[in-house]
Amino acid sequence: MNDRISTGMMFSQSVSLMLGKQSKINHLEQQIATGSKIVSAKDDPVAAGTAVGLDRVVAGLEQLGKNANNAQNRLGLQENALAQANELMTRAVELSIQANTPVPGNTDLKAIVSELKTIQDSLLSLANSKDGSGRYLFGGSNDSDAPFLKAGGTVSYVGDQTQRQVEVAPGQLVNDALPGSEIFMRIRTGDGTVDASAAAGNTGSGLLTSVSRDGSADWDGGALNVRFTAAGEGAYEVLDAAGAVVATGTHTKGEDIVVGGVRLRIEGAPAAGDRFDVVASSSRDIFATMDTLIGALESDPQTAADRTGMQNLLQSSMRDITRASENMIDARAKGGAQLAAIDDAASARDATAVTVKSTLSTLRDLDYADAIGQYKLENAALQAAQTIFSQMQAMSLFNSIR
Questions:
Q1: Pair 196, 181 in one domain
Q2: Can you give the residue ranges of the Flagellin N-terminal domain (predicted)?
């Protein structure tokens, strides 16, 4: 059997060859124009699928970066608000010390009270601070409404106790701003564990200036009453919560009273029957502490005992304000730790992004030298095919017998 090579078949093969070369050239032109060697998934299905997955990783890293920026903004605003609040607390202590001296007259006391009220209002304004998007900083997860409300002279917290966590790097979370209740409301009194106060009916000049735990013994947390039994001599007895005498002693000016793991500093001269109560620390909000301080300064004492009572309230308020200031410093330290974690997360994201983008570049980026070389080669092959096709068109039997 003889195979027949027809003119039509030769034309068809030549056209197919030229079209194939033209298609290859078009594909190379697209690669060169886009800089990508994967123009469509059929070019390399495995690499295309892997690249799509890596694109998602890059997009996720970008979103984590936005999360980090948002959290960093809120934590920075929290730091600024707490720094301002701490300055206000320092000023309140200064005013309390100024008011606790015998120098200020009624006019000066009124000016001090007016400034303290302004400080209280400023604290409330800071507690209701917003971020750049209008969300309240200290409302927990309920950040669409003001977390602190003042009604009837009393400030209450209406936010929640939730502290959001924000993902800022793969598998790494940081805490958002603290709930306001942790900063402004639940502040421990005294030294944070033990507190003490002078009884309201004291008649002497005994002034409780400090209370703390004594490191040499453990306090069991029970209530104690230090009751002076003799004026002038400083004799006292200590009663437990059941009224039983657990210790006795004589108070010497300049020395602390240490009993049951608690240390008290009492200045002045307590009168017989005067009492100082020791209890476990409770929680009090800074606004109530400011109310107590302002109320003490507005009490207008008429007698020496009244004056001592006011001074004891001032001392108690100053201790609580100091505790509130320490609480804010702790909150700032927590926020600072989260800001440091955000910086570390940025480094982790950048390192991951470099690795992922390097892999993507290996999968997608075109080798221009190789592509241009192939382009020239295909162009030369196309021109050769066109030349051959042109010569085939000129071939004819009549030319042979002419």
A1: no
A2: 5-142
